[in-house]
Amino acid sequence: MHRTRTAGAVALGTAALLVAAMPGVIAQEPAEPLTVKAVYSSVIEEPWDGVIHAALEAEAAAGRITHSYQDDVGYDGQMEFVLQEVASEGPAIIFGDSFGNEEAVRRVAAQFPDIPFVFGSGGGPAEPNFSVFDNWIHEPAYLAGMLAGGLTKSNVVGVVAGYPVPEVNRITNAFIAGAQVQNPAVEVKVTFINSWFDPATAKEAALAHIGAGADVLYAERAGVIEAAVERGVLAIGNMADQQVDGPQNVITSVTWNMTPTVEYVVDQVLAGSYTSQDLKDFSMMAKGGAALAPINTGVTGGIPEELVAAVMDAEAQIRSGVLRVSINEAQPAGSTTVGG
After folding, report:
1. Which domain holds residue 174?
2. Count of structural domains, the chain
3. Is the pLDDT of residue 12 over 70?
């Protein structure tokens, strides 16, 4: 059952009163914050949706929007009904994920052409009001792969991911490429759990990788870091910096930041200049939408300075455009699927 939750906007009244009290200053009424709604197929605790939510919360804290959301709508036909209800309330913008609900989301967007719909999608934008974004974090995934390849002592690295869809495949393939550049002898085992949020299955898949010799894990899904901590192996987080989940185990995280995307869309709507478009560039390293979290040199066993230097050099080359990380959206060879 989907959940409705409200995130309050930060009041601007105190600032306005302070300005009004200053001699010779004419106070101006702050612009009314935009009413923004979000609708998510999965639970907000799922990292992908959590990143979108965090960016919207930041805009609410800045006083530019008020924000409420519904999560856990699922994939059983409820998305169209829920979105129609939300759109009928007349918000200034609707954000969310689509993918498994792609057709339903696009149908509702077409029914409300005056409302900007900004959704995670593997497809393109649609005029006049449907914009798309995605987590283009393959660049930091490549860097994380370099760390994994350089740190493994068994030459076996494990990846536990959601579905073998293009968006996940390109992250996984970039991670594999980075690992192999740093360590040509490395074997990267990949398991898809056929779910966006099933920590128990992800943990079991991670334990299976450890049983097969993996001593570094890429936690593309929740549940993997827990296994790494229990078994004393290293891990790499995903979407947000997850070092707190395993201070002795989490090397770094492949992070996505939706703030540049959300700020851009809010700016457009405030200026009355919104247009439907592919917002891909705002989720890449060049615009601050993707990054490698700080490298945790305090993990068990430490991290050689020369490996950190190699990764930092590669990051600089990516940011300058000298190094281009290939986009490969094919399912990784030899990957397996469990669950679902």
Report:
1. 138-256+289-337
2. 2
3. no
